[in-house]
Amino acid sequence: MPTTTDEGAAAPTASAGCTAARRPALARLLKASHPVPAAAVTLLTVLLAAAAGLGPAAATTAVAAVAAGQLSIGWCNDRLDMRRDAAAGRRDKPLAAGEVRPAAVTAASCAALSACVPLSLACGALAGGVHLGCVAAAWAYNLWLKHTRASWLPYTVAFGLLPAVLALTSPAARWPPVWLTAAAALLGTSAHFANALPDIDEDIRGGVLGLPQRLGRRASIALAAVLAFASCAVLTLGPPGPVPTAGRLLLGVTLVLCLAAVAAPPVFARGRMPFLIVLALAGADTVLLLLADLSLPAG
Question: How confident is the model at residue 6 (pLDDT cuts 50, 70, 90)?
């Protein structure tokens, strides 16, 4: 993959060197993998594996495949962003702070990707192929699409196909229903806009011009909220049969949250409140997603 050279790394300051000395090497390396998003997706996979009725061996294999893929994606992202993070003074980034060598991050990313391939295929040829397609979409984001108007596409594809990975690994080995795939894709697209909010101004200054940066903070807040609500609506109304009372109540709550995020005054748009509202919407969405039956026949 295309990478920057080691000379582009920020020179470690004395304080950074002291911090690096106190922190174990493995911890510094893991910090460069975007551990919070990686852990969130891996945990979601654990819960979806249980919902899909996977046995311990199949669930462990699927979760390990997703974890390896997420680590490879996170390390790749930090390695490619090394110079930009250093120029922005990102002391929270181990590469930019000089706490970890670029070669180590490159090797870790390649090793995780190499482990992801056999682990994915161990879930079955079809499930493994789908998961590797998700990982390829995320790498395409890192390498190219994050700078384009199509920056949302990898999130849509990868999140949309995640339920299929687990459903195809299950004993029934069938595709999930269309409404479940659509809801997961909407959630992933919402996550893209929400994830861009905290650093959107810094990204624009650094030349990262994905769709959220091109649209601006207010439009990204509105899109993140509307897409998350749309996902909740699909998960509530998509399954066959009457909508339960709890589902209607949760849908009403998410509608109120959506309207609050969209209608927030400009002064609040620059704070964390809209971001927290979108996170609450995503949380409700995730609960509904986990309650969905992954063994339903395709529809």
Answer: very low
What's the DSSP call for residue 170? S
Distance CA 127, CA 171 (A): 12
Tokens of 50: 């249980």
Q: What's the sign of the alpha-carbon dihedral 271, 273, 276, 278?
A: negative
Query: In 3D, which of 113, 120, 45 has the Cα closest to residue 76?
Result: 113
Instruction: Select the more confidently predicted residue: 142 or 249.
Output: 142
Q: In the chain, which ranges are continuous DSSP H helix?
A: 14-22, 25-31, 35-51, 56-80, 82-87, 102-121, 125-143, 153-169, 178-196, 200-206, 211-215, 217-237, 245-262, 266-269, 273-291
Cβ distance 106 to 80 under 8 Å? no
Question: Which tens digits make up the pLDDT trace of 136-149?
Answer: 999 999 999 999 99
Q: How many CA atoms lie within 13 A of 168 on its CB side?
A: 19
What is residue 144's predicted lDDT score, i.e. its pLDDT? 94
Cα–Cα dist 296/239, whole Å: 9
pLDDT at 14: 41
